[in-house]
Batch of 3 targets.
Target 1
Amino acid sequence: MTVYDGHHVKLFVVTYYNNDPVEGYAGSKVFTTKSAAKRWIDSEVKDFLSQEDSSWFLFDEGFDDTVSLRDREEDDYTTLEYSIGEQNLLYMRECTHCDSPMNEGYCIDDGLEYYCSDSCLHHHYSPEEYAELLETGYGYYSTWDEHE
């Protein structure tokens, strides 16, 4: 377990966007290394292209860390795009389960453990166990900033 008093970290954020006019969506995932971000994109693209009834094809592998897929059955060429961008962030804690940097999340037993999400928390504590920690004051959700 590592407690941070405010460290800057370079993170690589993969943004994915689907321009489908009916079911369009955007999202992002954060990685601590560019190679991890690229591996995730490669895995996503491979999954899309390997589906038995897939009409998607690799449209463009950009030089600026962008990969685009298109649906050949759509008249408007629905596109799914993945791009990697760098961000420098200040973070105050690190998740005990997945090591993700965090500025908000669950704190257990006055900082012995930190969890960035419900998923990470529930790998270690059931909802009932966390409710008991909450009730006894040994667990809480918080945000941290550089002034704490």
Target 2
Amino acid sequence: MGLTAALWSIPSLASERAVLTGAVINMSGGTREASETFTLFLDHLTPDAAYDILVQSYRDKGEEGLQNAVWDLKPLGQIQIGHHIGTPLAVARASVEGGKRVLRILTDRAMEYYEVTHDLRTTEYPFSYLEITLDDKGLGAGNLIPVAKVAFKKNGDMDVTNYTALPFTLTHIKQEPEKGN
């Protein structure tokens, strides 16, 4: 078992699976203020070699290179919000910060037909991004940026730009006991 999985119960091998549940709250205003439950299934983390390819694709070919590289990745799991079809997870990284586990997850965003056919500015934000912080009991909170643009800093960390007024709040997150795949 990998070090990350052994110490922090975040899967690093394909045979492991983490299941997180919680609520998503959209407080950005307008007519779409709402809350929904979510379930996140994470089968494994992005290997360093695959992450390095994403960083290099961005450096070589910009946002389009990154988007193409993300499309080539095998999904790491999925997030399902409410009763909607799940969205595949493209990138999942874990770290320990201040004694807590931090998950950073990138997904390819499904764009609305109207966005694409009317060449809206939102099409320049092809990703969704989640950041979740969990304590040692598997409880936590986080944020979801539903319409995001991603770049990479010189050190390889993701630099995420939010298109919406506010990120969605992820709350009452709980890591469920492993039930297998």
Target 3
Amino acid sequence: MREGERTICLAQEQPTSPEAEAETREASIAIVRHLEDVNNLIEGRDNGLVPGQEAEAQAMTESVIKQSVAEGHSRILFIASPAKRTRETTDLMIEQIREQYGDQFKTNVLCDRRIRDLDEGKFVLPPGYQPGEHYQPLATARDIFFEESFGDHPNPLYRYGDPVQLPEGGYKYPELAEHFMEPGESQVDLAVRLYSAVLDMADEVDTLKKHAKLVVVSHGTAKSVFWALEDVERDVADGFTFDTGSLMQLCWERYNTKCVKGATGFGNVGTMSLNGLYDQKFIDALQAEVNYLQRLKQGESCLEPDS
């Protein structure tokens, strides 16, 4: 296990027929974005769900059940971000499974902090702020974050909301200086934990394939990264290679040019093929990327990629 935050251990579930076993060879991970959450910045970014989304939860559940049946599974393993909105989404889906299918499907839930949303730092709300109001400094910080991370002169270590103090005094982004008490994560922080989670899935792919349908309940940012990683992996399987240190930029470009609009919207259920986790060439490249980014975080020289 890398960054051992969870261990999958399930009682063996045997396929009921050769046909069912054949179907599990084409198994996938269901990648779910949480349902719409309450917009209340007073509570930070960890709010519960907007009430009345049972119909949406039912549609999400039916999609997961359909996948589970096609793959021959009667056990469903949810791996959820620790955020309130993802935990409530998971609870709603499990409730739907129990109400509609009784004991036909067994469910387990694990929490993995690595698939949490991007940390946007600690910000200062204006006097008189009311829940639901638009807070422009967050939108401004988001634009700056992606420009710093992926613009003409990318700085993947730039942290969300950082005004960047200049040596001669003042700030590069004075519009952020009064609104953020503490910056959030960088793209490197985000990539290391999400890529590490995928590497752990690769370590456990045989267990996942044989014993349960895996459902990852996370956030729009994580979902976009998982989508892009699968797109890159398909090309790697066809002979494509990428330089160590370039994967974040590559994923960003793939997502922005190829992902279907709405694929990371609230309640969307997508898939990531388990077959890609057997692609050792891709897994080795992903591990080399994590090693590179960890050295970058620590301020070490990254000129020489892993041998």
